[in-house]
Amino acid sequence: MQSPPLNDSACPLTPEQQAMINHLVGTLEPVQLAWIAGYLSAINTLALQGAGQATALSAAAGTAVNGAAELTILFGSQTGNCEGVAKMAAERAAQRGIKSNLKNMGTYKAAELKKEKLMILIVSTHGEGDPPDSVEDLYDFVNSKRAPKLGDLQYSVLALGDSSYENYCQIGVDFDKRFKELGAEAFRDRVDCDVDYDDDAEAWIDGALDKAADLADTGDSNAAPTGMPAMPFTFPGMAPAASKYGRKNPFPSAILENINVSGHGSDKENRHVEMSLEESGLVYVPGDSLGVFPTNCPELVAEIIATAKLKPDTVVQSASGEETLQDALLKTYEVTILTPKVIDGYAKFAGKAIQSMLGDKNKAKQRKYIEGRELIDMILDYPPKIDAQGLTSVLRKLPHRLYSIASSYDAHPEEAHLLIATVRYETHGRQRKGVATTFYSDRVTEDTPVPSFIHENPNFRLPADPATPIIMIGPGTGVAPFRAFVEQREIDGATGKNWLFFGDRRFRTDFTYQTEWQRFRKDGILTRIDLAFSRDQDEKIYVQHRMLEAAKDIYAWLQDGATIYVCGDEVHMAKDVHAALLDIVRKEGGMKANAAAEYVKNLQRDKRYQRDVY
User: Does residue 142 sit within a domain?
Assistant: First the structure.
């Protein structure tokens, strides 16, 4: 469903007008596209009613009329969660009559910060305490000597993160601390949200807006937030209004196909899964993910219940309502990841021995224990005196999993294809299983409905101009979205060149989608493919090595306007690829290190370097 550019046969505009629109659309964020959609729709509606153009412009823009402080809602997100929360905040602000301005940190001008009077920040932390790609510029500016005094600013921060990581919500913590150092005043305390953030985020929004209502411009209760149109709208990546399914109301998707695509003798198990979206009304574009709600391993749940000396049929009040303990541990709660909050809650029911892991002075010991252990380990190591309700009360909700969609909706209507690497490993003397990956490999059948939803990823999109060359770097299952990209480019008749870097362990057993890539190459859709199979020779070769070998051509493509995409492992691969890209730009461009870094940063700012890493 990638929107094709305007062309002579598709619209009544002149070629020059079409070119201008195509160029503009290619530079816009989804929020900006949405604003323009509402802006133009408002102009058209009011023009048809006989209203003057000036009135239409004013109504569409939602301009403040009395000079009072507008609420700036500033968000920064890697995968789109913060954007969704920010949009909710903007909608609720409008319902309260608060004038607001919805802005993405990726396009926010740092110079505007000193002019702000009232702001809420909604920001996530990526990986081990890193800012999302779109947040880096503002984060660096705020923490630099160039940051202005913010004595006139009142603000509040909502931080999203994952408490299983050591630097939980670190970027939100850093913004909050730095704003205070610069003289800003928090009108509501920061709230840190875990992966099950819905309830906490909604409560924070309502509380923050209640406070902001006393401080913000409320001159026109009917005005839409700037950055959002005043009427219903859709833009690429949004499900149509007809779809009633989403993260809070997932669609029961049937499995159409579920096969192991790793070759005989491979030490990996990569599965190609095809999910049905028939009659759901759900649509997606290349770059989006499918969110799925898995269940825990039944054997592990049975062991937990038996070891804790509880009964599976005991009824508990869970986050899903009233259900048996067995169902709660199967479907509702996370049992394979420990977090500091889980340990702190569990300690109330355990003996004195666990006390040595509590408190700030024992954080390092607690973190060491958490690594590679699960709930069953803690029950065995620190037997509790606990009832069923007490056990569920200390657990975190079982989060959904996101998988990059490996198909184009236009090529496979009402289907979403996934590429899933089954996770099995051993730690501390026990065999472990990935919850969602073994859900697909061991537990589901074609008759198992899988609760699913579309998760938009506005930060990972094909270029609006089909003539733009693209370079795709996706080893392992990171190749999934690039299958969707190439399928879409073929359907759109895109003239831009397509170059894929793929890698895995062995050519014979691990060349995922080999026949499809060969067909795309033969048909001229895939211009070039560079392969890196790490175990087929004595010296390990990875995709970053192939990049360096092709340095001259990569730089030439970039100079020709190419967009570069990276998908897959963040901890090692993405960092190595980034380092290789910097090295390529420095050497081939004849630049110093700081100039090369700025070149790559500009690629990111212009959305010509996009990453979907995890």
Answer: yes
